[in-house]
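Protocol step 4 of 6.
Sequence for tRNA dihydrouridine synthase DusB (Cellulomonas algicola) entered exactly as in the expression construct, tag removed. Do not edit the line below.
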Amino acid sequence: MTTTTPAAPARPGAGAVLPPLRIGPITVDTPVVLAPMAGVTNAAFRRLCRESGAGLYVAEMVTSRALVERSPESFRIISFEPDEVPRSVQVYGVDPATVAAAVRMLVEEDLADHVDLNFGCPVPKVTRRGGGAVLPWKRDLFSAIVRAAVDAASPAGVPVTVKMRKGIDEDHLTYVEAGLTAQDAGVAAVSLHGRTAADYYSGTADWDAIATLKAAVTDIPVLGNGDIWSAEDALAMVAHTSCDGVVVGRGCQGRPWLFADLAAAFAGSDERIRPRLGEVAHVVRRHAELMVEHFGDEGKALREMRKHMAWYLKGYVVGGEARAGLGLVTSMADLDDKLAALDLDQPYPGEAAEGQRGRAGSPKRPILPYGWLDSRELSEHFRRDLHEAELSVSGG
Ligand SMILES: Cc1cc2nc3c(=O)[nH]c(=O)nc-3n(C[C@H](O)[C@H](O)[C@H](O)COP(=O)(O)O)c2cc1C
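Step 5 output, structure tokens:
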């Protein structure tokens, strides 16, 4: 069943709602994880989130091949500020040997403290080759990739985690089996986005599936992901699923201060951040500054900032022209002018600023390699094509 109205959270009263999250040797006091989001969770955005709250902040996904080939973009993706601890890298790969080589490189060169493996990508150009969210259907391949990563990381004591979706569609669910396989392979935690590849980003995330996974996978933490838009949603997910921590994606787009709300909520406090537009403008400017530092190129940084504007301004009264102008911002000076022209004294607009943001859309039937569903094992025929499932992904 898909959860539309999660159970009311148990009011925490004083003290913490959950114990610290333990991911191998890493202790995360507030059991909150920033979901990896390509094009969003770079070092600049993570810094804003880190300043606001506490948790584990995962970088944008990087492909194992790009890492092994040492592409400049892959090194941008895995760049961390000196004070960022732990350094959490998400790797996507479809070939056990390449994933092993990439993870070995990360740990031997001391480039990461935590490696998350991505099995959640629903985009057709990936699934049509058997990659992303449809890969765990081939249980031998899934197991081999996870084991290869754990074997490569464990000599350095670096924990490996797995992030996945429920499966291909409701008739081809893989998450419980994949969670148990990952646990057996020695991963330190699993997180589940409560949607199938077919769901894409549509509808509401199935929190019952997270509860099912939590009941099945008993030796390692199970993290819940999907549709946490507020601290109250995070508490509700924990109450509904008994998960050990929450993974927050779109809800913090344009709201990095959500991590302060989450830290408060998990500490049993009702305090929430309700910024005036002027405070939002201040965060936008700081985000842009950090982006310029991160990319080392003002034009590129400001182009990257454009998509964030609608998220930051959601719910505030800002005219169409001003919005459009901020969506086309070209330089820091231009940004300053456009922000200064807003009605900065405007108070927090309440509900209008909250709720769903970012990717949504309708279900899509996943495009699979011909005959993919016929067997749960990988045949030579599919193996040959599989590397293209990685080459077609922009992740470094
Ligand atoms: C713009 C965008 C980029 C994403 N990139 C990744 C990614 O690189 N790796 C990954 O595992 N998931 C990625 N996701 C999925 C999120 O990590 C998360 O699982 C999903 O958005 C559901 O969580 P939410 O409802 O909190 O957003 C992405 C999602 C969005 C919206």
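Step 6, annotate. Strands lie at 21-23, 26-28, 32-34, 56-63, 88-92, 114-119, 160-165, 189-193, 222-225, 245-248.
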